[in-house]
Amino acid sequence: MANDPIKQFEISTIVPIEIANLDLSFTNSSLFMVATTAAVSAFLVLSTKGRGLVPGRWQAAAEMSYEFVAGMLRDAAGTQGMRFFPLVFSLFMFILFANMFGMFPYFFTVTSHIIVTFALAMLVIGTVVIYGFMKHGLGFLKLFVPEGVPGYLVPLVVVIEVISFLSRPLSLSVRLFANMLAGHITLKVFAGFVVSLSGLGFVGIVGSILPLIMTVAITALEFLVAFLQAYVFAVLTCMYLNDALHPSH
Amino acid sequence: MAVRVSSDFIAAIFVGAVLGWGVDQIAGTEPLGFIVLLLLGFAAGVLNVMRTLGLVAQAPSAQARAAPPPAAVSSAGNEARRDDTEEKGREGR
Q1: Closest residue in chain A to residue B52, using alpha carbons only
Q2: Contacts of residue A232 in chain B, CB cutoff 8 Å?
């Protein structure tokens, strides 16, 4: 059906690859991930090629994105956190470009699949856990013992803190995925109303003005959400990395 | 914001439930681990939500960063600050 709102999220194989019974096919999702990475690289490499002391338009945009992420990381994790800048910047740019790519008609939205966002979140939490244990050893576990808790409450609080910590990758990935999925479905449903209503003759065409206005408004909102979710993901990444840097208090 | 809060809440419950189920599978304490950890998951979910909304002090590490290094501040000032953050935390729990 033409206005099936779920159809846009279907995975289709482009180049079938199978290694040792594992389906490693190159899909439309892979294609758009490659396109996202290529677009980010092209943007940054080409815009900073001139290396002007007075930046041009493109170079200013690239410098702005650098300053934006660097400021965010410095605020959340201090200057020590800057060693994670490549990770946070790559994540931010990848999610931002993937979300923005999703706004083109007929394009696939990589971040609307929970397995993709979950992999990104696990990358972050894996970095936090591994770096935390590498730097602080078992002192990293102090993260789960808040100060000033009476002794008999410690076991309970520790379990709650551990569950709270383990829920982070899940909530991080669900947030990004749910926002992109819900936004794109809403957009498609309202756009579908326009088509089906205008098939009903004059009254339908007049009536379809309302969903058309909504579609335009939601498109604008979706651009905001696309940026905001990339920002939220990066900010939370910074906060979690801060835990890895300073677990004790 | 709504998605943020609800995902924080639901994720903690889900993790609690899965942990409880896993403990049951390993230890053979069939419904007990699931029940207890599911309830603790609810507690963790509420904690997550309150942290997200800023009603409770952030995760322990964030406080440490907010306070100036001990060398720069007198011990009395440090004491007062710690009391302050403690009270904030208690009020939330």
Answers
A1: A236
A2: 4
Candidates A133, A147, A227, A222; CA nearest to A185 is A222
Q: Could you tell me the end-to-end alpha-carbon distance of chain B, in angstroms, rounded to an integer?
A: 22
Within 13 Å, how many C-alpha atoms sit on residue B36's CB side?
10
Give residues 16 to 35 of B whose Cβ lies within 8 Å of A: 16, 19
Task: Report pTM.
Answer: 0.80
Select the residue from B5, B8, B37, B52 to test the A interface by mutation, using most A Cβ atoms within 10 A.
B8
A161/chain B closest Cα distance in angstroms: 7
First to last CA, chain A: 58
Amino acid at A224: L
| H or E element that contains A18 | strand A18-19
Give the burial class of A87: count Cβ atoms within 10 A of its Cβ; 0-12 exposed, 13-18 middle, 19 or more buried: middle
How much is the ipTM here?
A: 0.71
pLDDT, averaged in runs of 10, over chain B (93 residues): 82 91 86 89 90 71 45 41 42 39
